[in-house]
């Protein structure tokens, strides 16, 4: 901080910060780069000055190579800010300079530094210019001062830089960098002066996080314990772009949320989704940024506009009555949502917990003790006693109980038993932020104590510093697993190779140790995650039902699923090494709390069935993310303004878990609804679970005064929507596929506050999109004069038919109307040759289908239906037995209900008709047909009427199994698929075409049967015709019942005689 004239300290400008960073003898380390990036994010008007200073430094002719490397390092991180990227793109000659730097060699800094310069120059050019331009064109001369040349820009023209008076250099040295700083600083002043035209001043109020606010007597549905409404702006107007609307209502700001209320009935038609998806109910923790605008309407009226951008991609615009109220709204939202780390207690979580505890009269919160390190590691056969003789090479130690060894690690650490405390401290000092290797998971005795370890990068730097204690500890980890003594220790550096080398400039590095096998994981850093996340959100926002769009291209260009694939790939390496080789694995990234937590947690979900339960998932999150120091406050901007370190790492991991649920739908006890709950509550500031960056902060500042989210989920039993009803507890490990073709967009997450295009379809209509099947009905093919059909062709069609039925029955679906008219061919049959030799079939017309109850779907005697339906010629005996007034002996013989095997019988009728040219049972009316089908004395013949055609013995056996009258003895669809006649296991003779007269006879017989048995369509009948038909049907029903009674008597007589 600078102090002028003994007054208040003045924060250095961006130019002063960069000048200090690029000065000789200074180090451009991670905190320095972060400080500059945060300053630019905080003061957007300083972007031009920062960009031009850095560009001038690395483009300077004859400049010091070390200064160029420093400038490129800062610029590479600064370009994650889109404003900086746009500004650099406008600097004349900068791309030529980058091309020149990409050929750097013999700079005097050494080959590794030359490689860094070339790599950073390539990355900066790629981020800024992409693939545009001509990289093979001859580079232009780089001017001494790139600011003196004109800059192509749509901004107002700037005053010539040459005319700007240069003030004396602040430093004694009058280097080129000093001149660049002066010019850049004055350029910033010109930009500010020319960009700020006459505008209305918005009355702003200083943010007061700890002030006592008024409480209004306002209530609404869903008001939480401890929630108080502090401000109500009425009237307020919501601006909607599509369709254009101005909706008047009341804007409420409570200590938990921002809520817009409208009169009932406002959200209807095309705006109904706004109310359904609760778009205008925004927890304050989800507010990312606020913008105040004071434009003038086309009518000349002054408007006071509040623009709210949220962390879940909502953008909401309100008009408030006055500028004073606009300032009040801004101050209230910022103070209650982003009070800063010094005012964490101002967040809603503290007031919510106090109110809940007051209402319940209890301060107990078991959620905070959900993860017990002793209990958890004992489950893995890791003990806490140093004197234990169990043979475990690992020990649960309390060496970090006061957080002195590593302040971002948990109090209890699992470590190699043979490493002494002074060696641990040496290792911690060598690892970044003291995050030494410590165990995350152990396979126990069953896996030879093979385990997974996590840490941060070593601080070897460009000079290759080493630490004997660090090498000794990794050697101890390698030898800890019995199988690892003859195998190198797998060390997975989750960063891209170039990034790992780039970190050496800032003092980082990686393990090039003897006995270690180093693999780079290629997972991008938090800035890449944030960029991919925002691009994915933009891809969702770009979707429209009115145009083709570019959804697949936008999703691919976002790189979001590239990152998820890389995480899966690294997790797969870990699982293979531990499960297949029973060896230990060490993983790390830069700090060991982002990518490391993601990969470790995915790997543990794959290896440990306990973590695949609901309770286990919460323990996993508490252990790997909360206790091991994932920076929830910084990464999710919980309780503070988003910085350059803001990145949805945890939400990316939740989508990884979602992809696992899709690949293994029965392996997890929980559903994606639980993941959605976690994604939301991680940002709302309602619970203390995600408010801090480490276990130490959480234990000291938050835990005594807030509730744990785990309590809310588990206290009264998990909600029904969180439980997977298909869950099957199973041991063993999972091997997820990292291939993106197996990924699916998490629509419930990405579209939770947006309209999915499929939801925009007019709900008054049902749109059915069907496949076009151009071959027509199988029934028509059987009677075609041009078609040649053989027994082998019918067997081919039969195999497809029974595979379709097998699938339907596995889904508990019974078709109930299988017949030749409901089977379509994919190829037209009316062509000379073997019509069915190439065509595939499609089963259609599910109008009569029904679903079996779950409890009887796998029983061979599944009986669930008692409604008579289907085509009489294809009805099984058990369907006739369910008819009202049916013969009692039929019910005794076939039961009063039926199940999936009626489809098998009907399919047998279809194949019988195709092969023999007749129905297995044919009668003049339904009554006679029913008696034939249900009689124990009638059997189908297996040759045509004229005796000219017979089926093979294998085919006869197959048809007999299908047409078996007793459903208990009839085969299932799955058994039919495996029959020798269908499966091709039997060598058949040469194809013999079924005679045309046989097939024509079958078609005519079937048509006659259907004409006599099925009622006509009543859509166009007059009322008089319908009345006459009803009387005729009633008389037919009486005749039917009377006929069944006669049949019952005769059946009973025959039974008694026998």
Automatic annotation (TrEMBL):
<feature type="active site" description="Phosphocysteine intermediate">
    <location>
        <position position="589"/>
    </location>
</feature>
<dbReference type="GO" id="GO:0005524">
    <property type="term" value="F:ATP binding"/>
</dbReference>
<protein>
    <submittedName>
        <fullName>MTMR2 protein</fullName>
    </submittedName>
</protein>
<dbReference type="InterPro" id="IPR029021">
    <property type="entry name" value="Prot-tyrosine_phosphatase-like"/>
</dbReference>
<comment type="similarity">
    <text>Belongs to the protein-tyrosine phosphatase family. Non-receptor class myotubularin subfamily.</text>
</comment>
<dbReference type="GO" id="GO:0005737">
    <property type="term" value="C:cytoplasm"/>
</dbReference>
<dbReference type="InterPro" id="IPR030564">
    <property type="entry name" value="Myotubularin"/>
</dbReference>
<dbReference type="InterPro" id="IPR000719">
    <property type="entry name" value="Prot_kinase_dom"/>
</dbReference>
<feature type="domain" description="Protein kinase">
    <location>
        <begin position="676"/>
        <end position="982"/>
    </location>
</feature>
<feature type="binding site">
    <location>
        <begin position="589"/>
        <end position="595"/>
    </location>
    <ligand>
        <name>substrate</name>
    </ligand>
</feature>
<feature type="domain" description="Myotubularin phosphatase">
    <location>
        <begin position="367"/>
        <end position="750"/>
    </location>
</feature>
<dbReference type="InterPro" id="IPR011993">
    <property type="entry name" value="PH-like_dom_sf"/>
</dbReference>
<dbReference type="GO" id="GO:0004672">
    <property type="term" value="F:protein kinase activity"/>
</dbReference>
<dbReference type="InterPro" id="IPR008271">
    <property type="entry name" value="Ser/Thr_kinase_AS"/>
</dbReference>
<dbReference type="InterPro" id="IPR011009">
    <property type="entry name" value="Kinase-like_dom_sf"/>
</dbReference>
<dbReference type="InterPro" id="IPR010569">
    <property type="entry name" value="Myotubularin-like_Pase_dom"/>
</dbReference>
<dbReference type="Pfam" id="PF06602">
    <property type="entry name" value="Myotub-related"/>
</dbReference>
<dbReference type="InterPro" id="IPR016130">
    <property type="entry name" value="Tyr_Pase_AS"/>
</dbReference>
<dbReference type="Pfam" id="PF00069">
    <property type="entry name" value="Pkinase"/>
</dbReference>
